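tool_log.txt
---
The assistant was asked to compare two proteins side by side. It first ran the structure predictor on the initial sequence, then on the second. Raw inputs and outputs are pasted verbatim so the downstream comparison step can read them without reformatting.
(1)
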Amino acid sequence: MLRGNSSTLNEAAMQKKWPLMKDCRGKVVFIMEGSCVPFYIQNHPSLNGRAMFVYATPGSPEAAFIKLNDARNDSSQIRQYALDGYIIRTRCDVETVEARNGDYTAMNAALASGAHICSTDYYKADPRAGQPGWSSYKVAFPGGMKARKNPVTAANIDVTEAIID
């Protein structure tokens, strides 16, 4: 759906040829990461004939999804890549650090960055919350929202009439 008649995924992403949300409902996106990615890409330029995306370097033929895990330090890059048309993944927390100290700085940076995927291990507080060395840290959208528009790429889009199932 993304590539269409573009020669590469990168070209399609940079031209913002992403399908509309309504056309993606009920579908799943698979993104491969790790040491097998080079083998997955090999002999499949721009992932032609492949079922999964990969996290890739911006500008490479396979680039549609970009991973920048440190929203505090990478916020300007995340913002720019999102505006360029890439889908960005970042993290709200690392290992057990935030769950132990209750620091929401990384989560707030991730949610404000423009990243489309904000990963966490703490969608609810750790069961050890309240015990010495553990906080009640959990990641959630402000005000208990279940979904929200992207604060960077959809800032000027009116979603007051949108229906979210």
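(2)
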Amino acid sequence: MSFRLFIFYCSLCGAWAAFAGWALGRPANLESGMKEGVRALYLGLLVALALGIGDALWNFLLRQVIPLLLRVLVVVAVGAAGGFAGGYLGQALYGPSQQVVFLVLGWTLTGLLIGAAIGAYDYLSCLLLGRDRRGARRKLLNGVLGGAAGGVLGGLLYVLLGGTWAGLFRAKNADLWSPSAVGFVVLGACIGLLIGLAQVILKEAWVKVESGFRRGRELILSKPETTIGRAEGCDIGLFGDPAVGRLHARIVQQGGRYILADAATPDGTYLNDQRIYQPTPLQSGDAIRLGNCVLRFGERRKR
């Protein structure tokens, strides 16, 4: 999947998941603050789940069952907590003051925690296993920034749509927080869109498949170690090429550098058409050849 498609699918998944959350939360029959908290809980849970599964699909994690299940549990927990906290807090502050800024604040908190949910599993796993947290921390921070920005934009549009809707139908009690399908869809789309944009625009290092299986696919390097090969558990799967080993090579983060290491394969790994025999630092623009497949490494210039 290319970066453009990833951003598009993040927005699409966010919109559909928000609509499903609106449908599930609509029958809630509770007091005002709790009711809005429960409705927002469904939105946060489903939007975070949809974006988390999209992130897993992008990284081939569906072939790694246990990490996928753990990721889903973390994403669901953080997303649901973010939705409830944002919904309850926004309504609690809005009720006495009737200031719509508090509604936007609530959605901003929801978007922020949904964005955090996407990178929470990667960061926690690196923390528990004692691995380099640099890439996972960047992914978490990018998700938080994108989610918060999406919450602000989506919250503003949600309030505007609610006011327009009330004006068109001349509602006697125009509660701008009351759920509307269009408002939830716009909110979910904005959160998904901005999270996807932040992950892509603020990325540090990435690879692009220039030839071979799934040509054009792009992958952000956010793990301490990215594996390449024909095995289903590899992060970058290069299937259909017999010259590519099951585990052919690794890209490892060491401090602020990315290192390419061959996994002792008979056909070898080539960097800029030169076979490597020991771990070798990568530079932006380097071509990595494994069998008939070519990957292009990219890295943001460091100041």
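---
observation on (2): Helices lie at 3-25, 32-58, 65-97, 100-129, 134-169, 181-201. The CA atoms of residues 230 and 246 lie 4 Å apart.
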